[in-house]
Amino acid sequence: MTNTTITKQEIRFKLKSSSEYGQASFASIVSLLLAVVFLLNSYSPAEGSFKPAVLAVSIVYFFFTLLQFATWYLIRKNLVEGGEIKRSTRAIGYVLMLSLLSANVFVAATAFQLVKRKKNAFYTLAAYAFITTLLVFAVSALNVFKPYVADNFIIGMLLLIAAAVIQLASLLLVAKYGDRDVLPRWMGIIALLLILTAVSGNLFALGLGLLLFSKLRDKDYTSGSKLGEVVEKLSRSSTSMLGLMFILFLLTISITSYLTFDYGLAIENNYSSILQPPSLVQPLGTDNFGRDLFSRIVFGARISLIVGLLSTLIPVVIGGALGAISGYYGRQTDNIIMRALDILYAIPGFLLAIAIIAAFGASTVNLIIALSVGAIPTYARTMRANVLLVSTLEYVQAARAFGSSDRTILFKHIVPNSLAPMIVKSTLTIGTAVISTSSLSYLGLGVEPHIPEWGNILKLGSAYLETHAFTAIYPGLAIIALVLSFNFLGDGLRDALDPKLD
Amino acid sequence: MIGQATTTGGGMAERIAAVYRKMLLHPTYRLLLLLTGAPVSVIVYIFYQYRRSAQGYRGVIDHTRNELLQSGYRDKVLAEAKDQLQRKHRFFGNTVSDKQIEAEASRIADQKFEDQLNERLQAKLSSHNGTQYSFGDTFQQLIQQPLFFVISLIIGFPMYLLMAVYANPYLKYIMERLIMAVFVIFGVAFVVFTILYISPMNPATNILGETATAEQIAAFNHLYGLDQPYLTQLWNTIKGILTFDLGKSFAGNELVSTAIANKFPVTLTLTVISTLIAVLIALPIGIISATRPNSFFDYTFMFIALLGLSIPNFWQGLIFILNFSIKLSWLPATYNPANWLSAIMPIVVLGTGLTAAVARMTRSSTLEVIHEDYITTAKAKGLARRNVLWKHAVGNALIPIITVIGLQFGAMLGGAAVTEKVFNISGIGSYIVDKQFIPDIPAIMGGVVYTAITISIVNVIVDLLYAFFDPRIRSKMKQY
Hints:
By secondary structure, chain A is mainly α. Chain A has 3 domains: 15-117, no CATH class; 119-262, no CATH class; 273-500, Orthogonal Bundle (MetI-like fold), CATH 1.10.3720. Chain A is built from 21 helices and 2 strands. Chain A has helices at 8-17, 19-42, 52-82, 87-96, 105-115, 121-141, 153-177, 187-197, 203-218, 226-234, 238-260, 263-267, 293-329, 331-346, 349-360, 364-391, 394-401, 406-417, 419-442, 454-462, 470-497, and strands spanning 43-44, 49-50. A two-stranded antiparallel ribbon of chain A has the order 1-2. In chain A, helix 8 (187-197) packs antiparallel against helix 9 (203-218), helix 14 runs antiparallel to helix 16 (364-391) and helix 16 (364-391) packs antiparallel against helix 19 (419-442). The longest helix of chain A is centred in the middle third of the chain and has 37 residues, at 293-329. The relative contact order of chain A is 0.08. By secondary structure, chain B is mainly α. Chain B has 22 helices and no strands. Chain B has helices at 2-25, 27-36, 38-54, 57-70, 73-92, 98-129, 135-143, 146-155, 157-167, 169-197, 203-208, 214-223, 230-242, 256-291, 296-310, 313-327, 344-370, 373-380, 385-422, 428-435, 441-469, 471-479. In chain B, helix 15 (296-310) crosses helix 17 (344-370). Chain B starts with a helix and ends with a helix. Chains A and B meet through helix 14, helix 15, helix 19 and helix 21 of A and helix 10, helix 15, helix 16, helix 19 and helix 20 of B.
């Protein structure tokens, strides 16, 4: 009669407020899907038999999926009955971590979140930094099956191991000391080492190092840094963290590939191994010139990331500046700038890019310029709307009353406070830029054809669609994964930065 | 009877004069008004000047000015301004020379003096003989004379047309939007032409080959007018776009307009069909997702939508061809206008991005609307769930969705080149891509500009749709 009966609504609230429950359900479903995909791929209808290697992978995935489902059920039971997750349930997380060995990052990332009861931004960043470095190490290690490796392969791998050790150590230390109000002073050394490992491109480590430094410096006087807040909010959604992880994984592997990958395998023709199916030596097979698709896709990540980032950064800066000036000064300035940008806005970005490339020729630099020009108006509009909103706030009036110049007000007070929507928008449009890059390359209008860019690889592969479909499928999957990651990250950032939800 | 006629006539004249006066306040409309009604403006101006001098306007001004100056008003204002400036600079710790302060103070003082002068003048004139003398007043006085009204109607007809447009908020909005669209279209033509003009590529050598002599190249350039100065070429191109005559393409010796007229409908048909289907699929999905937020259904559909946004069109096309044409042999791999089955895959591929974007937008905008107070009121009133959703929520959620559809339609039309290449469709996109290697300037110009014009027209329609769907925009329109 009293409060022994729990209503359905209460259960729903309990489940929804537990981040582990949501993550567990997400991980089990994705892991199940992957296991099914592997199972389907292991069966070759032509021979009516299973490929043992792929089948083994599928079985491992099924095993961890089952375990994950069981954990999910236990979490649910614990939450409904006791209101919190028991220690024994959390301990299963250590077993689930082993799924990292099968490259099942979905289950592994969830496991890292499950084992710790009180999570903070430090722990999340440390866990993701460690997983990223391990993945990069594992992917780079596939090179040992090749007939020869890059000159600096050993050095590169040793450096990666060193980075992984530092990150693992910091993960353990952060798990132990991260909750304290004041961190021990020697954490500064760890932070410094972490920032050093970030040279590999692992920005999780950079973020963690900076966060540690800021916490060391502020000695519990303030409520914490803005970065930490954003990370904490972002880490509530597993999809956006996984998206960020994939982006940083590609960034890290693009940087470390200077040491661990041999560019020759990606660009030199090898007529003795044309259109080979995937094997240990060529994990994704070879193309019609006998070049290793795996190396080509790894090197292609570099181009895709650079073009995607630059062709977003340039319009953000130019469009942002124009929009800010237009929104702040208003009247004739606004009219002239926005009417001029309306003209650019009327031409579809893709057509404008084709026209610019038609006029100046196909090359990577022209491609970046062409994609940037078309994107300027959208950013200008977003920035203008924000600046119009922020300009009316009290602190801007206060700054004006203190006699600040227009430039100071605009760039010190207004612009920093109108950046959040720009960040969200740019994250969401990097994905579009990546798609446009590969689409233009596919049409022969983008990156020069001899450079292993994903669109170029796909263009070559599309000629062998009937006989060797994998040459077109793998680069496409890479593009989708990258774009999807940026979209997930953008969605997560929007939720994390949206002031309306505060 | 007669009296009634004059009063209605007077009311009419008053209304016209009110519109006239309101238009005079707006700089652009003032210019347009005075220009379109130039003969009327001249007559009104003559009367205006005449009346002013007849009533000793200048004399009054001079008198008032002297009066003010003698009362020492200016010196007082100047001293005040100087004092304020000095205090201000002392507060901010600025060191400013006396000369600068002097100059600034006298500027402020002049401003204040003029204001005061005008104020007094107004007071004096209105007390003097009850009327102020502005240009608009003169017009009002004149228009009340039937003779002037009739004459002005004949000689200043365009002006009255303009005033009629201005007086009706909807008509004004539509006209302004149309004029913007025309401006944008000319701008697009200018931008695209300039990009192609400053191109370092040389179509002559690309077509005639590396071995072409200087005379051959000169003859080629002369034939296509490439040796003319920039402005002449720009003028010819804009004229060509307006008259649908862009001349012959460099390669193939075909009329660009004919080629575009043959290819454009293909692309347009495919994109329009695919937009319609996409909207029909996306709206229900978005609405259902919004009514059950964070459910399994919602997550699945939104994940699929995000996936749809992330798939490159050409890859999706290739995978479709691989599965449905090569492996299953259900659908033909290349497009053929005579076979509607062959249009299925291109339509699906083209529509994927739009479906995804519209579904996401529908979900977020419906979710936002569902949490508004008036929905709570509607529920509290005891309306059925279905009624609340369809009558109150969806209608208001439609505005941002229409925006997204308009934007995505433009992007789809612009990005159709890729899909057309994959399915071997001879549409406008693949035409532009084929022509860009030369570069065939008239063909690219035509393709890009006509596509941009189509998109501009769609955007105008979208903007007008807003005005008719959203009462909030309508009431805002009436106010300005």
